[in-house]
Amino acid sequence: MILFQNVTLRPRNRAEPILLEADAVIHPRERVGILAPAGAGKSSIARLICGIERPDQGAIHRSGRVSWPIGLAGPFHPELGVTDNLGLIAGLLGEEADRLIAFCHRFCDHSLALRGRMKDLTPAQRARLAYACSLAVPCDYYIADETVTVGEADLRAKCDAMLDRRLRAAGLVFLSRNPAQLSARCQRFYVLIRGKLMPCRTPQIGQEALRLAAASEPPEKEPAHAG
User: Fold this and answer.
1) Residue 64 parent element (H or E)
2) Which of 39, 144, 148, 184 is the most exposed place for a label (fewest CB within 10 A)?
3) Cβ atoms of 202 and 189 closer than 8 Å
4) Which helix (H) or strand (E) is 142 found in, with range?
5) Contact (Cβ atoms closer than 8 angstroms) between residue 148 and residue 185
6) What is the pLDDT of residues 75-134, one digit of tens each?
7) Range 64-81 average pLDDT
8) How far apart are CA 119 and CA 123, in angstroms?
9) What DSSP designation does 55 have?
């Protein structure tokens, strides 16, 4: 279970909180979608759920293993070798390096130059490798920040198949601004409105709530002009 208790998260670069006194619960093997507009702080919430960030107030309790955000390439160091990077990630995940490297090599169709440096990979290769790392070790919950697949159609199909396999015994928390994506992947939903995490029956209802909330915001004051 993942339990939010009175969670507030305040970013340093803006006045309004990303989350304000949020309460929520995600049960084992449950697929939960969170609809949030662009710029609302989805990535920060994803990192919060994973434990990469900490709340300014309240607590998040986790029972079971939680993945980092699917496809996150942040742990890669560009100057280190591909194999060195994967070895470090294996240590973070508590996995044997040889097993993780073998999984990633298979998922990438043996196309990786394992002896090369990370910065020598193409953006597409790095994205594919990051996705493989995200799913290399079975977790109890997978976290998705807009990304559930990567690449062209054939690779997206492979990503979908691998994620579906993992989700047979795991839950999913999917943060997105796309109602259709959330409907396709999730069974229960929240919408993020002005820092409040509110349950909603469908993402489409959540989108309408966001529209009404935006329409009700007071207009910004125009700067006064000297007469």
Assistant:
1) none
2) 39
3) yes
4) strand 141-145
5) yes
6) 899 999 999 999 999 998 888 999 999 999 898 887 777 778 999 988 888 999 999 999
7) 89
8) 9
9) -
Assign 218 a pLDDT band (cuts: 50, 70, 90): low
- Taking only the tens place, the pLDDT of each residue in 124-171 is 889 999 999 999 999 999 999 998 988 888 888 999 999 999 999 999
Which sign, positive or negative, has the C-alpha torsion 171, 156, 69, 10?
negative
Long-range contacts at 113-120 (CB < 8 A, ≥ 24 apart): 113/82, 114/81, 114/82, 114/83, 115/81, 115/82, 115/83, 116/81, 116/82, 117/78, 117/79, 117/80, 117/81, 117/82, 118/76, 118/77, 118/78, 118/79, 118/80, 118/81, 118/82, 118/85, 119/78, 119/79
By three-state DSSP, how is residue 81 classified? strand
**What is residue 192's three-state secondary structure?**
strand
Average pLDDT, the chain: 90
For residue 118, the 8-state DSSP code is G
Beta bridge partners of 186: none
Q: Pairing between strand 141-145 and 171-176?
A: parallel
Cβ(76)–Cβ(85) below 8 Å: yes
Q: Residues 3, 23: contact at Cβ < 8 Å?
A: no
Question: Token pair of 61, please?
Answer: 């309790």
